[in-house]
Specification:
Distance between the termini: 68 Å
Strand content: under 5%
Number of strands: 0
Order of helices and strands: HHHHHHHH
Radius of gyration: 25 Å
Number of helices: 8
Length: 175
């Protein structure tokens, strides 16, 4: 009996880990299923619909990651992140609701825990997609400095020669 309880807790932990890890792939998964079902409905059969669905899911994931890495404006990156995080939150809501149905009799608490789970899984997907770095800033041909260096960004501080000043300047600055 103790072994069964430990295995159940382990299984729930593995399912939760998979849910948080795979949450970012909810949008490509939904797109692949939708396109695969459409292909099956048009007469492609099982093998054709599976291939078309997998291609659609891979294309959706590739385009999303490419756009997120290429786009510079923050508002556009936030929009792309929201497009990927919203389906993850919906999937998280339903996954947690399915578990909560078996764990607690009160429907109110089921919904409360499902909403908390949706927020947590949506936030996790948001953080994972937001962790992708934007495309590097290109150097200008004339000056050789990037736009971040011209604005005084972190690269500018590291790449410009440090001014030593006189002994009195160093003493005033605490060196």
């Amino acid at each position: 009996m103790v072994l069964g309880i430990l295995l159940s807790i382990t299984a729930i932990g593995v399912v939760c880990w998979l849910l948080f890890t795979l949450a970012i792939y909810a949008l490509p998964f939904f797109a692949g299923i939708t396109v695969g079902m459409w292909a099956y409905g048009t007469g492609a059969g099982w093998p054709g619909s599976i291939v078309v669905g997998l291609l659609a899911a891979g294309l959706m994931l590739g385009i999303g990651q490419f756009l997120f890495a290429l786009v510079r404006p923050v508002w556009l990156r936030l929009t792309i992140g929201l497009v990927f995080a919203a389906p993850a939150a919906v999937a998280g809501y339903h996954a947690v609701h399915g578990i909560a149905k078996h764990a607690m009799p009160s429907e109110t608490w089921q919904v409360i825990f499902s909403v908390i789970g949706a927020i947590a899984i949506g936030a996790t997907a948001w953080i994972r997609i937001a962790g992708a770095e934007p495309a590097p800033i290109r150097a200008e041909p004339r000056s050789g400095l990037t736009s971040s260096q011209r604005r005084g960004g972190p690269e500018a501080y590291r790449s410009r020669p440090q001014h030593r000043g006189t002994g009195r300047d160093r003493a005033a600055m605490g060196r």
